[in-house]
Amino acid sequence: MDGDIKWDGRATIVYPIICALAGFFAGMFGVGGGIVKGPLMLAMGVHPKVSSASSACMIFFTSFTATTSFIVFGLLVPDYAFVCLFIGFTATFVGQIVLFYLMNKYQRNSYIAFSIGGVVLLSACLMTIQSMVSLAEGDHHHNSGGSGGICGKGS
């Protein structure tokens, strides 16, 4: 059926390996699970609505676990947390309304695939910028015990 995964000899080996690596990196670094598996599911032929919902669910649990870890270790800055929570819910709400409108108006599911691709591209660009800023700062944060990000207590 349309939207079902097309399994063959190669897919049976490659897809689980990619998913395991995505899960590993999600656990180690807090990124990768939903953001890698969303495009992977699209490549596997999964319907875009199913891929989007599954990715969002994976990202929700990864984010919840990361936030819980920050709270437990006392690394969460409450001011940033409330602002990010508000921005996240607002952006998600507006994005859902816009995407729902576009899909109903033009009867195309490709907007979901484009939005997933846009999020992956934006994430890659922002992580690259953060890495370059951290490299440009040198060892300053490493020696002072800070994380180099905006959320650490050492910032």
SSE blueprint and pairings:
Blueprint lengths: L8 H21 L3 H11 L4 H25 L5 H29 L3 H28 L2 H5 L11
Q: What does this molecule look like?
A:
With 155 residues, this protein is an all-alpha fold. It has one domain (9-144). Helix content is 77%, strand content 0%. The chain is built from six helices and no strands. The protein has helices at 9-29, 33-43, 48-72, 78-106, 110-137, 140-144. It is globular. The N and C termini lie far apart (52 Å). 10% of the residues are buried. The model has no long low-confidence stretch (mean pLDDT 79).
Summarize this structure briefly.
Helices cover 77% and strands 0% of the residues. By secondary structure, the protein is mostly helical.
Structural class, from secondary structure content?
mainly alpha
Low-confidence stretches: none
Number of domains: 1
- Largest sheet geometry: none
Q: Between the first and last Cα atoms, what is the distance in angstroms?
A: 52 Å
| Beta fraction | under 5%
Overall 3D form: globular
